[in-house]
């Protein structure tokens, strides 16, 4: 009895990663996207799934959360898209998913999630908070999501990336983090500083893994109409479909030369730090 229970448990433990990967097709490239339940992340998941890639679409939302309904809808049409729960501030949760897929080569890791609001109005209200009204708990959360989140993901999934064919880590940053060409005045202090921190981490990470053939790229748009109260054309924004398609093209064409620099997928230019 004990032996049977022991071996049953052992097979559950050892077969779990295989079961997790059952929906994914061996031989097809795999992309993992954070913050894939809305905005750019959702559209990236849709377009990669339409191209026949294996997609690990991650969201901090639970399986029945209405905020992930659009992602579940894509999954119904594309069984090779799996949804995993990842809050990028939760190291244990990230490591759990990395362990679940421990045998899977991960071609492209897109660190897309960011502490941004669902509407432009709410985002602007947050970006316009002046220095003397900074809520430091909120600031800590922005750093945990925007700066440390991609590093937590890179640390946990680096073994998967290293054993893949494409070996690309793509960190989505923002002009807000730029010293050379940032947001006007003192707009978006927490967001800007957290993205500047992400930029610095990414450059150092790029150096750390360059010799092993891993590309760590920073990418940013100028403006993508991802918010419920925005439309393409507004203040120079491109549509979310166009933004995702341009980013995927950039990732396809990425070489070691893109590692440690900021590529703007809207303009096609290299942006200053
Ligand atoms: N849109 C632009 O014009 C623009 C410009 C420059 C840079 N960017 C960058 O592009 C990326 C995507 O932006 P977007 O406009 O598509 O944003 P978005 O539509 O607001 O989506 C942000 C995503 O991040 C997720 N997220 C937030 N906190 C998280 C956490 N702790 N763990 C996991 N996921 C979390 C959100 O999930 P919930 O639904 O659960 O909140 C959502 O899925 C971001 O890195 C952003 O900084 C965008």
Short description:
With 273 residues, the protein is α/β, with parallel strands linked by helices.
Q: Which fold name fills CATH's third level, the topology?
A: Rossmann fold
Query: Going by CATH, what is the homologous superfamily?
Result: NAD(P)-binding Rossmann-like Domain
* The CATH top-level class label: Alpha Beta
What is the beta-strand fraction?
5-15%
Described by the principal axes of the CA atoms, the overall outline is: globular
Structural domains: how many: 1
Biggest sheet descriptor:
8 strands, mixed
Q: Would you tell me the overall average pLDDT?
A: 93
Distinct ligands: NADP nicotinamide-adenine-dinucleotide phosphate
- At CATH's second level, what is the architecture? 3-Layer(aba) Sandwich
- Proportion in helices: 40-55%
Largest beta sheet: what is the strand line-up?
3-2-1-4-5-6-9-10
> What is the overall number of helices?
8
Low-pLDDT stretches are 10-16
Q: Name the structural class.
A: alpha/beta
What is the number of beta strands? 10
What does this entry look like structurally?
- The protein is α/β, with parallel strands linked by helices.
- The chain has helices at residues 2-20, 39-50, 69-77, 91-100, 120-127, 136-162, 189-209, 240-253, and strands at residues 30-33, 54-59, 81-85, 108-111, 168-172, 215-220, 224-225, 238-239, 262-264, 270-271.
- Strands 3-2-1-4-5-6-9-10 form an eight-stranded mixed sheet, sandwiched between helices.
- Residues 10-16 have low confidence and may be disordered.
- The protein has one domain (2-271): 3-Layer(aba) Sandwich (Rossmann fold).
- The radius of gyration is 19 Å and the shape is globular.
- Helix 4 runs parallel beside helix 6 (136-162) and helix 6 (136-162) packs parallel to helix 7.
- The N and C termini lie far apart (63 Å).
- It binds NADP nicotinamide-adenine-dinucleotide phosphate (NAP).
- NADP nicotinamide-adenine-dinucleotide phosphate (NAP) binds next to helix 2.
């Amino acid at each position: 009895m004990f032996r049977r229970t022991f071996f049953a448990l052992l097979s559950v433990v050892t077969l779990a990663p295989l079961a997790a990967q059952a929906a994914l097709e061996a031989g097809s490239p795999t992309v993992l996207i954070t913050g894939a339940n809305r905005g750019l992340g959702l559209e990236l998941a849709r377009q990669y799934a339409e191209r026949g890639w294996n997609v690990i679409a991650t969201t901090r939302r639970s399986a029945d959360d209405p905020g992930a309904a659009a992602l579940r809808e894509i999954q119904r049409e594309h069984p090779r898209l799996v949804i995993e729960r990842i809050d990028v501030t939760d190291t244990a949760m990230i490591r759990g998913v990395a362990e679940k897929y421990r045998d899977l080569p991960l071609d492209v890791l897109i660190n897309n999630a960011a502490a941004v609001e669902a509407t432009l109005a709410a985002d602007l209200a947050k970006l316009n908070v002046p220095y003397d009204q900074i809520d430091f708990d909120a600031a800590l959360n922005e750093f945990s999501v925007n700066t440390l989140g991609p590093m937590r993901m890179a640390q946990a999934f680096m073994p998967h990336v290293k054993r893949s064919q494409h070996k690309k880590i793509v960190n989505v940053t923002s002009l807000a983090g730029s010293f050379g060409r940032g947001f006007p005045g003192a707009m978006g202090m927490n967001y800007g500083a957290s993205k500047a921190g992400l930029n610095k981490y990414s450059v150092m990470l790029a150096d750390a893994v360059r010799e092993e053939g891993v590309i760590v790229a920073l990418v940013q748009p100028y403006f993508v109409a991802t918010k419920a109260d925005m439309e393409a054309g507004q203040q120079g924004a491109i549509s979310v479909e166009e933004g995702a398609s341009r980013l995927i093209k950039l990732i396809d064409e990425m070489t070691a030369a893109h590692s440690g620099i900021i590529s703007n997928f809207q303009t096609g230019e290299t942006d200053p730090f």
